[in-house]
What does this fold into?
Amino acid sequence: MNNDYLKNLLTGPDVVKIARSLLGMSLCSAIDGVHTEGIIVETEAYCGTNDKACHAHLGKFTNRTKVMYEKGGTAYVYLCYGIHHLVNVVTNEKGIADAVLIRALMPTDGIDMMRKRVDKEKPIHQLCNGPGKLSKAMGINKVHNEMDLLHSSTLYIKPNVKEINEELIVGTTRIGIDYAEEDKYLNWRFYLKNNKAVSIY
DNA sequence: GGAAGGATGCACT
DNA sequence: GTGCATCCTTCCA
It folds into this structure.
């Protein structure tokens, strides 16, 4: 698959900037023999060491969080509430636990399959409007943990065709991390303005 | 071996 | 807008 261009976009020391540049790119999967694809419309940045909301904060290193210390472009898939799979992109160099959570997609391909997996009655923009739902719609689960998003052909990221206007990017506080004390007020959640597929807008 | 938790989703008011 | 079901994994003893 792939190239240095994408690697440069997805890896680096500034996880917040990467969270912004991920907006407008496509997340693709080829699972169960079906290609599904959607434009990333919502992300959140998690900065390892100094961020209380991050699983790997204060250098916490366990079997679960070790993937976040991998090199940029690695997928970190984590099971939440025993039910929902959440998809992250690890973004920093090996040894530093930064990651971007992908919270919502606007489906562009494989929509029949997504409907089958989620709910065949739902309108397109409600198939991936939430981190748990998007992984379900795309068939992602923990076997895709540690997958290389830059080189895999099973789960990968495609750069956006056209540039996203900065004015369309909205920054706001992150969701579902009330336990993170003051860090929950950081404006590290980003989404595309006026996009129906965003989980809360 | 077991207790605790959790980056949600949905039903319901 | 708010409340809560839910259940697998993780981590510690």
